[in-house]
Amino acid sequence: MDRQIRPIYEALDTGSNKSAILACNKVLKKQPNNNLVKSLKALALVRSQKVEEALLLCDEVLAAKPVDDPTLTAMMHVLRGLGRHMDMVTMYEDAYKQQPGNEELGTQTFFANVRIGNWKAAQQIATKMHKQFQDDHYLYWSVMSALLQAHDPTTPEALRTVLLKLAHRLLSSSATPSFYNADRFHLHVTVLRELGLYDEAYEMVESETGKIVCSGNLACDELRREIWKLKGLAKEAGERAEKRIVEAKDRNWLEFLAVLDGTFADLTSDPSDVEAAKAAVAERIPKTREFFGKVVEEDGVKDRSGHLALLELEKRSRHHGLATDSTALNSLLESYFQSFGGKACCYEDLKPYIALEGDELAQWTAVLEKQTATFTSVPDLWRYINAQKLLRYNLPASALTPEAESQRAVQYLDAYLEGLKLGKDLPSYDLQPADDLAILSAQAFVNIWQQTKDESFLYNAAALLEYAIARSKMSYQIRLHLVRIYRLLGAPSLALEHYRSINVKQVQNDTLSHFVLSRASTFSLSSIGDLTYTTECLESSRIYLSNSEETAEFIVRAFGGEKYSQIPDFIVFEDRLDNSLQRDLVKMEHVRMRIAHEPINSELVDMELIELKFIFDRVHHDNRDFDILANYQPRGVATFNQQTEFLEKTPGLGWLWVFLKIYIKAFQLASDLDDTVEDKLLIGDRPKPSYDPETKIPLNERLATKKQEEIDELTPDEALFYEYASALSQWLAPYHDYARPPPSAVLAEAAKITEQKTGHTLRGVEIPPEAATNGHAKKDEEPPAVVEPPATISQYFDDMSKRLKELLEGKGLPHELLHVVTLTQEAFLLFVIETTRFKTPSVIKVNKFGALAQHIKEIRAKASGILSEISGALVSYAEREATAERRKEVLEACKPIIHESGLDHDFVLNVAKKITDARKQIADGVGKGMVRVTKTHA
Amino acid sequence: MNIRLARVDDLMGMQACNLQNLPENYTLKYYLYHALTWPQLSYVAEEDGKIVGYILAKMEEDVSEGDEPHGHVTSISVLRSYRRLGLAKRLMIQSQEAMATVYKAAYVSLHVRKSNRAALGLYRDTLGFTVKDIEKGYYADGEDAYAMRLSLKHLAR
After folding, report:
1. Rounded Cα–Cα distance for residues A94 and A73 (Å)
2. Which tens digit of pLDDT belongs to each residue from A782-814?
3. Does A623 lie at the interface with B, CB-CB under 8 angstroms?
4. What are the pLDDT digits (tens) for B7-34?
5. Considering only alpha carbons, which residue of chain B is nearest residue A559?
């Protein structure tokens, strides 16, 4: 037997699924009931994407209830590949029931439940295993599972305490004390904390053994710190921290914060006698100041902690009205700038303390203005950069006129060019120390654009940043700035090029892909078959697949290795990636690009319908990183991130919800699947039911609900599109509902296709004989009368045509132009999706929908006409872009930044060419794509 | 500035530090494996809730015969604007202590680009590493690496 099986494993290991299947078939010929071979064949089939055949074998093996380890292991991989985690649980449970003395089977059953987060069952199995095998670690598995069930959002409030009490009881029944193992100790103290038993928890961490555990394990020590805080021991924690700062020379900022919290504890703990508390704190402040002063004396400029602590002390004293020396803040700021002005972090360090007014501001400004742009060393250069950033932060509105900002932008740029000399010998992968001056200059230009809406300032910013990136190739900061500016300028190919040069990988895809993929369908050329942006969507989404394949395994391994303190972290991490908002925003963009490129048939419609419905039930986490984009704008104006957002609206959850509603409704109308059919055809588990109460409302009601806070996230043009989409679906719904074939007919059709593909019938589906013969079953009701389409529908296309004309005549930026145009095309495609059913003559005839067909024809003709018009306008716009004249305009606009050498005329002309070419490419492509789309769906 | 143990959900923040640095390409799995297998060896430096530096370290898994158990620094990174503050040194020392006390590591090893003079200075002059070997074409772009090590015997308890 072994001799026959080994080649199968070898083939699977080397990824040659075909030969694995052949080898399996050979064995199965002689032993048709060999479950191991069947499951191995199923695995090879899953891996070669032959899902239907795999399902068949898989179900046969499951029905036989296997218990042997090789078959179970093979099946585990098969089921994971099919996304059938629930079946995996059942399989192991059945096996464990047959061999209750088998510890390994028990463990695997526990793990199967862990993988799907079924903590209730996991807890019960662990308890049972503890009784049976008398090993303490099963007890702790059980405690951990109870704790996790208590944390699960789906667990009702009342049950949570019960579960925590259960965990507590289990812990006290343990034969060995928890401090034998730091992670068990951590779990024990966590349960006490959750139950609010702070005294008991305090006793544990402060016991002889507890102290040893905490000193050797930072996770436990963090928990100890928290218990102190929860017990209200701020003063004691402060004293302890002072000791650590002096004796252990600990310079962790948390210790300094503990000293500060201790100093003000009387006032922050809701005192009954405020005056007495004030007096006590006033007495303590000088002592703390003296203490920090000593740290500063000892550390000098080696460490920033003492210096920053003095600033924080002054800030808090002022906040409580207990500051005694009005000059103290200024002199602390000055001395900090003296000591650390040459470090890059100085600006970020001081930002929380410099929102000054009046004389204080004047004095501070005078100090900073003394820094001149003559520097001979990198710290000198940094001191100048920090001074510029700090000055800029406090600029009043009166100092931000376009003229003043222009002057500043040029001044930053000149200093940048000077500063480049200091870094001329750096290796190519290193960053230029002067980079931030180029960024300051670009931000000043963008700020002028915000005021004047004159895009020539954006050209200046783009050209100087292009110059800077060529000298500092690894600067992601400069590239992100360019990405933002190129999107505004409607040059998406350049934006994508810079984004790709950042070399975003792994989890960064989740946090950063919003820079290029937010509203990416505006910039996609999928309509003419250019799938660059479509591919970017798929590439950036890979991380979510590796997360769902890998992270759950790490949770299992964390249980195996008893790393209890880490388990909640892994679970949070998995959840944050799995239910990432960015993931589904990208998915939505992908759908929007897909429909412009692929034929709109039932395959596309059904699949997307199911996927979007799953997303509609998710509770999302927003992991997008916006803070990564540096902001050096003055405190009174919008941040650089806000200034460069696409039409000033960042798509968030509300935006996603609107687009889900639009597309689920459209696909629902177009699809023949109803819920009963969907259930039968679905492979893999449904996602866990959501705990959001809104998901309990019937789907159609949810789809129809419009919420203002969601609409607020839309641009005005998107809001119009939403109105159009609602009117369209409302008008067509009754006809779809009437004409949709009955579920039995849909199933019969699906079964027929499966049989053609695999030679087997569809599992679990019985086809009533009458359904299989006739797709158009007789209906009892009369067809709904055809009514006139709402005026909104055809009006929409007129409105958009008008919008485009306005933009072409006026000062709309190119991205706004593309936004209007692509939305109009999308409206047409939505119309196509919702009317494809009525293209079939027999559907019209049987349902007496002649009048409806006429209306549809008229609207389609009108929409096509407008799309062709727009297309023409875009193509001629594109031609105007790529001319020498246009390049010269851009060049002229960049006069303020052109220098004699380096950043010279030729360099800027080259950038102008890149921008205008990119712009031509997108406008031309989108324009031609529109014609193609109307032809495809004529 | 605060140094603390790295946690799994720091991963998103840690990745930001990696943006401007050398193009190493570690998979999700590799990070998770470090976090789970040697949780005491990896640290992050945090400032106002933002991760500004980290060290990812492990114990060598295949110790060849005659060699002693030792640690290895997989990756160390500090955000540009937080350099020259002694952060890398603090991260390194924190991890080295754990290697010596928790895992009884005899020494710690690491690789550094031949051209990376700043890092080389830190390892050799500030931390006392010595160059053991040169590995030809160690990096994906073909650059050579210095293999460096530092004895941890003085930290053994």
Report:
1. 14
2. 899 999 999 999 999 999 999 999 999 887 889
3. yes
4. 888 888 777 777 766 556 678 888 889 9
5. B36
